[in-house]
Amino acid sequence: MNSRRHFLQTSGVGFGWLAFQALAQAEAGNPLAVKQPHFSAKATRVIFLCMRGAPSHVDTFDYKPKLTEASGKDGRAPGTKLHGSQWKFAPQGKSGLPISELFPHLSKHVDELCLINSMHTELPAHAQSFLKLHTGNSQFVRPSLGAWALYGLGTVNENLPGFVTIAPPSLFGGAQNYGSAFLPAIYQGTRVGADARPIANAQVRNITPPVGSVAQRKELELIQTLNREKLQRDQFNPEVEGAIESFELAFKMQSEMPKVMDLSKENRQTLEAYGIGDGRATDDFGRKCLLARRMVEAGVRFVEVTHSDWDHHFKISQDLPKTAAAVDQPIAALLADLQTRGLLKDTLVVWSGEFGRTPHGQGADGRDHNSKGFTAWMAGGGVKGGLRYGSTDDLGYEAVEDKMHTHDFHATILHLLGLDHERLTYRYAGRDFRLTDVKGSVAKKILA
């Protein structure tokens, strides 16, 4: 059975006009056609701000006054000493949520934030936990969160990728973190830029055709005919399938993608708000956040933005303030910009790393890996703002109240998009797969 027909027939949604239209378009060869969600959605798009390297929750968004009082005492691990935060926390906004002084700009938007202080995952190892955060599985190749969202909902602008990842890392699983695995290749993320390279220089390569559009269309049809014949012979060949879909998408992107990526039309006030300017510490991440806003505004369903400097084993007193300062103003500007444009109410903004860090010190000035407790936050898209959900113990070692595992995190994001994580499935190798495997619960307390 056609997978898109199967999705609509098993979704529990009546075959309304939109569903019929989406099905007709999909069966006519349009896998990106808009699909009805399982139920009324709070969010229609996602911006995932990924902080690779594991931010220290006890120094950023998880206030632990008893840890400060216990500084210098023995930690749980042999030979370690507890290390209170070097930075002050203060209640912010009407909600009074405590935020570290490392985030003076973001603190002004605290009433939009839902702090999830009870995150946890299995392994305190970067590669495995990073893959788990993105695909729900650290052992096998599985579709990414963005690919699942695009598969479940389609996209409203087929001249742009439905899923874009900005400056993803080449390490920690690389392309698996935005891949589609056994889902059709059209649902994989389109990479823009690369880790450790300025995003200002990023471009989608070969976007400008060397020949006219008519000649190019004829060339493309010839290549696609050969590709389809190859695919028909092989029956199953993900590489050929991916080539077919990517060629078609690239042809459509030629006119619109360069416009979306061109920041020169933004006014000085906007650029200043995002911290964009030569030599400024906020320039690179500011550009990434502004690109994310422009993309979701243009109809991209899922945008991931990566910042990669959060692995603070050493020199945390010097490096953490620099890292936080690089993202603080741009994220605050993104939230304000989305709100001003009326986009925040149905755009889910998510902030997280792969795990947290230990309450005890590592060496004289650092923190080690901690997968048992860390913080993520969400804003907009149907989430209660000004809320502190769940908690770690008094020292910040592990989640103890309203615990949210990675599977719960994914289930909640899909729920906000109107997708039931247990019903969003894809049949492969004789069984139905889903993002959350056989686990995951929606954190209903954070839903607005």
From TrEMBL:
Q: Which PROSITE patterns match?
A: TAT
Gene3D superfamilies listed in its UniProt record: Alkaline Phosphatase, subunit A (3.40.720.10)
- Name of this protein: Sulfatase
